[in-house]
Design goal:
The protein is mainly beta. The protein folds into 2 domains: 89 residues, Immunoglobulin-like; 95 residues, TonB-dependent receptor, plug domain (Ferric Hydroxamate Uptake Protein, Chain A, domain 1). It is 2% helix and 38% strand. It contains 1 helix and 15 strands, in the order βββββββββαββββββ. Strand 5 and strand 6 form a beta hairpin.
């Protein structure tokens, strides 16, 4: 989601066409009268977000979207440019994400420098998590087994033994848990492994 504005007048651009493109798979939405757009049910991958208006285009490339991600991509588009002009910028992950208030997502650039070998051991670095003498993790006082693991969207029983070199993203929910993980008692760990889209 995001807003399309004119950088010169700071006014919203309404009626612009926003296209989310991932290796040829596209989803198209339009901006409303306030310049806002919203798209849901987007498969994970690396996207190019482009806005078109009066034969001119502005693009943001390299928007990485995971299974549980909500990204805000604001685009600046000048209505006064000559038709046929294309502006391309690269997406930068914000330092503080206003949507992911827990900010518990670890990207591969951080994971590959962690001083551990298995993905299950990342739980020691997360707030509200304690490792017991039996090797299991206890989240916010929940009982043993209260931490659920999901790998690439599938629930895994027990502790996953994934090497860190095969992990792309790691996210732990130990406070607010999204409704789709309703059977979790203490917390949820959502992991995504490296794939074709994470390498390009």
């Amino acid at each position: 989601m995001g807003q399309v504005t004119d950088p010169e007048t700071k006014e919203p651009v309404d009626g612009a066409v926003v296209v989310l493109d991932n290796a040829g798979i596209q989803k198209t939405v339009a901006t409303n009268e306030h310049g806002f757009y919203y798209a849901d049910n987007i498969p994970s991958g690396i996207y190019t977000v482009s806005v078109s208006y009066m034969s001119s285009t502005a693009k943001v490339v390299g928007v990485k979207l995971g299974n549980d991600d909500t990204k805000t991509v604001n685009l600046e588009f000048s209505k006064s440019v000559n038709p046929g002009t294309v502006f391309v910028t690269e997406y930068r992950t914000p330092l503080i994400d206003p949507i992911d208030v827990q900010n518990g997502t670890l990207e591969r650039t951080v994971i590959e420098h962690m001083p551990m070998l298995k993905a299950a051991d990342i739980g020691e670095t997360q707030s509200g998590t304690v490792k017991g003498s039996n090797g299991e993790y206890y989240v916010r006082g929940a009982r043993s087994g209260g931490l659920s693991y999901y790998i690439d969207g599938c629930r895994v029983m027990g502790s996953p033994d994934i090497p860190l070199c095969g992990l792309d993203t790691y996210r732990m929910y130990n406070g607010f848990i999204p409704p789709k993980y309703g059977d979790a008692l203490g917390g949820v760990v959502v992991m995504e492994t490296r794939n074709f889209f994470s390498e390009h």
